[in-house]
Write a structure and sequence with these properties.
Elements lengths: L36 E6 L14 H8 L20 E6 L7 H17 L3 E6 L5 H8 L5 E6 L19 H7 L3 E11 L10 H6 L2 E4 H7 L1 H12 L3 E7 L21 H9 L5 E8 L10 H24 L1
Parallel strand pairs: 1-2, 1-3, 3-8, 4-5, 4-7, 5-6, 7-8
Helix pairs in contact: 1-9, 2-3, 3-4, 8-9
């Protein structure tokens, strides 16, 4: 039952620039079993080995999301008429202690799962899927759609096992993902060695490099994604560096020649019918983008994910 108290601020009645910013102008509340979908920030970037900055993303994306309205222009989905959706604030982090932060983030998402709340998170660097998946997928592994320029399957980086380049390996080792239902899309850029993505192939992941994506075309790639994921429990993770930095320059590790925001929108829309149980958008670093377009893109992708997830919630009830 949709509760009107969770109705977001109406931009047709209240100026977009007024009041405190929340994700998609939803109500800021504490987690409870009334909430179907929780929009959350994870301001963590201690897992990076290059440029910092994604800790600033939740605040920036909240601000940028003032521009988003209530109804999807293509599918017609109106998520706020289907589900109780709210901004649940940020997962707790200790900015001086990576291990403690990983533990508190995991507990935060485990608490959401215990209340049957599906999360859409804004990171944060791409370490955050590790504690998120630990919080939501320990009982039942999920399929993964990963849009990224990097495979994130290293065993370690700079002597550490949990960082922004290892989460897919950790997730497989810990039984959090089903390797037969994994798609890694958009991989490109220089590598530490030719073996960087070998782990994924050996594990049975479906890998579509950007060169392959360009050759096969968007429609064929979507067909492949749908065939691999099916309709089961699925998590989507978007590293914003999977998109071309010509469109999204605000990211710590930009890699030229990537997916366009338009293609990313259409790919998310094609997930309609998938049981989307969680998602994140990571590696947005507002400090490298004075135009704000990276945060605006992230806010729009958050709404795309919300529309797909709202449909999944209704079908699951």
């Amino acid at each position: 039952m949709v509760n009107p108290k969770y109705e977001p601020v109406d931009a047709a009645k209240v100026a977009r620039f007024s009041d405190i910013a929340t994700f998609l102008r939803t109500q800021r509340v504490e987690m409870s079993d009334e909430i179907d979908i929780g929009l959350v920030g994870v301001p963590f970037d201690i897992g990076l080995n290059y440029r910092g900055g994604p800790r600033e993303a939740p605040a920036a994306v909240r601000q940028a999301s003032r521009i988003i309205r209530k109804a999807h222009p293509t599918s017609g989905v109106q998520p706020y008429k289907m589900c109780n959706i709210a901004d649940l604030g940020d997962a707790p982090v200790n900015p001086l202690n990576k291990d403690e932060s990983i533990e508190t983030i995991e507990k935060f998402f485990a608490d959401l799962t215990a209340l049957n709340i599906r999360p859409i998170a804004v990171g944060g660097d791409h370490t955050i899927p590790t504690p998120i998946l630990r919080g939501i997928a320990r009982q039942q592994p999920v399929g993964i759609l990963q849009i990224d320029s990097h495979a994130d399957t290293l065993d370690e980086l700079c002597g550490t096992k949990v960082n922004h380049a290892t989460f897919m390996r950790r997730a497989l080792e810990e039984g959090l993902i089903d390797p037969k239902r994994v798609v890694q899309l958009g991989l490109r850029g220089s590598r530490f060695s030719p073996d960087d993505i070998a782990f994924g192939y050996e594990a049975g992941f479906t890998i579509i490099t950007f060169d392959e994506y360009e050759a096969m075309g968007r429609a064929a790639a979507i067909e492949k994604i749908q065939s691999v994921l099916g309709t089961g429990r699925t998590y989507m993770t978007i590293d914003i560096d999977g998109l071309d930095p010509a469109f999204c320059p605000g990211t710590p590790v930009p890699e030229i020649g990537g997916i366009t925001p338009r293609d990313c929108q259409v790919i998310i829309r094609a997930l309609q019918g998938v049981d989307l149980v969680g998602a994140d958008i990571s590696e947005v670093a507002p400090c490298y983008d004075p135009t704000g377009i990276t945060s605006i893109t992230a806010a729009n992708l958050m709404f795309e994910l919300l529309c797909v997830m709202s449909d999944a919630v209704v079908k699951a009830k």
